[in-house]
Design a protein that fits this description.
Elements (H helix, E strand, L loop, with lengths): L3 H18 L9 E7 L5 E6 L7 H10 L15 H4 L2 H7 L1 E3 L8 E9 L6 H9 L9 H9 L2 E6 L25 H6 L3 E3 L10 H14 L3 E2 L1 E2 L2 H5 L2 E5 L2 E9 L18 E2 L6 H12 L3 E7 L10 H12 L4 E5 L7 E4 L2 E4 L4 E3 L5 E11 L2 E13 L2 E4 L2 H14 L3 E3 L5 E3 L3
Parallel strand pairs: 3-9, 4-5, 4-16, 5-6, 6-7, 10-12, 12-13, 13-15
Antiparallel strand pairs: 1-2, 4-17, 8-11, 9-10, 14-15, 17-18, 18-19, 20-21
């Protein structure tokens, strides 16, 4: 059986061939570059346009009519077979079929901030080692990432060779578009662009990122050529289960932020300083999905103390229909808690971002037919421009730290999390 990474590389070969033969006007919203055989042997849809929330009545009709009569009538059908049979509908609504390693469950893995800017330490060290991702992320972490049914990471920079750095901004990042292939090497299935660096070299840097990610067949959430695309979820259907991923950012908490929010007519990120737009997106996704995952850029940097924005917005997001809330931005680990029955991982911390020594993690969530089966915090260490799975006394130290800052949950010796403190 081919690995996820091997299948991603197949996508690159197919996409190269398609790009040589198909010309698509890049600035025209609603156009699609290609449809190629992709992740995990399923069709991987490559978009160059705006996403939208699926029409609920159409989804109901498609679900109910797929095996209604004629050939195949009477056969047991999945509730989403009708949707998956309509490739055009899937393209328009950013719906991706997904095979899983286990037909009884779906594994989701999440990582925090990454940076592929050649001007900074991570990429300089990676080039010096000449071993790529495999020489930078430990084999045991890569096994978790590549083995996940769906692996998501925060893409904290744009892919572009154009633009100028935003004035008066202390740190501005950009990566060469060809560096995006490292997402495939990591085993990523989806990235978040809802952060305060996606626009670092102006609007062109964000739109170049969108084109780059579309070009390698990488789904993204949290930014777009307009507000409709920026707010639109990405959906995966696996084991007859539909999972919505939504991403938004509240960072640069000011009326006129440098990282521009998307509007009806301009590109930007999906902002949630004013939260009603995010809550509406969650409610709409809830109506057509079995699970809703919110990956949010929030919090205060370099502290494990939750701020008032996080404490206010987490219960609002949970009440709107989210099943899981994953946070990024603080660059350090923050508490794990529950809002009702909704797990909140307030900050994943840095994953592969700079040369500093930082505690890090992967978070692995397993979904079953009746809900979330397990949540596991997998301790890791970012150090010397690498990230490795923690073991021995370092693993126990990080788990002990997470227990101390997360008094309302129980974390066992293997990192499994349950509601209720000791």
């Amino acid at each position: 059986m081919r690995t996820k990474v091997q299948k991603h590389r197949t996508v690159l070969v197919l996409m190269t061939a398609l790009i040589l033969t198909i010309t698509v006007p890049l600035g025209n919203a609603g156009m699609f570059k290609a449809l190629a055989a992709g992740q995990n042997g399923k069709h991987h849809i490559v978009m160059n346009g705006q996403g939208s929330q699926p029409d609920q009545s159409k989804e109901v009709n498609k679900r109910s009519s797929f095996y209604g009569e004629g050939e195949g009538a009477g056969e047991k059908a999945g509730k989403y077979d009708g949707i998956l049979a309509d490739e055009e509908y899937c393209r328009q609504n950013r719906i991706y079929p997904k095979e899983t390693a286990d037909p009884g469950e779906i594994s989701l893995v999440f990582a925090g901030d990454i940076l592929f800017d050649d001007s900074y330490a991570i990429m300089a060290s990676m080039k010096q080692r000449k071993a790529g991702i495999d020489g930078t992320i430990s084999a045991d972490l890569l096994e978790e990432m590549r083995g996940a049914d769906i692996f998501m990471v925060n893409n904290e920079f744009p892919y572009t060779n154009r633009g100028t750095p935003l004035p008066r901004k202390t740190f501005t990042f950009r990566a060469r578009p060809e560096n995006a292939s490292m997402l495939l090497d990591m085993g990523a299935d989806i990235v978040s662009l809802a952060n305060n660096h996606a626009y670092d070299y102006g609007e062109v840097s964000l739109t170049d990122s969108i084109d780059t990610l579309n070009g390698i067949g990488m789904p993204f959430v949290g930014a777009g050529r307009n507000l409709q695309e920026a707010a639109a979820p990405v959906y995966f259907i696996a084991n007859d289960t539909k999972i919505a991923f939504i991403s938004a950012t509240q960072i640069e908490r000011m009326a006129n932020p440098q990282t521009k929010g998307a509007t009806d007519h301009s590109a930007g990120v999906f902002r949630c300083r004013e939260i009603e737009g995010l809550l509406q997106a969650v409610r709409e996704a809830r109506a057509v999905s079995d699970y809703v995952i919110v990956y949010i850029h929030w919090g205060t940097e370099s502290t494990d103390v939750l701020d008032s924005w996080q404490l206010t917005q987490a219960p609002q997001i949970a009440a709107s229909g989210a099943d899981l809330i994953i946070g990024a931005h603080p660059h350090v680990l923050q508490p794990v808690a529950f809002e009702g029955e909704v797990p909140v991982i307030y900050s994943l911390g840095n994953f592969l971002f700079n040369s500093k020594m930082r505690d890090s993690c992967l978070v692995k969530v397993v979904l079953g037919g009746e809900g979330i089966k397990s949540i596991q915090f997998i301790p890791a260490k970012q150090a010397s421009c690498k990230v490795s799975m923690a073991s021995g006394t370092e693993k126990e130290r990080i788990l002990a730290y997470m227990r101390r800052i997360s008094p309302t949950v129980t974390i066992d010796e293997n990192g499994f999390i349950e509601k209720g403190g000791r």
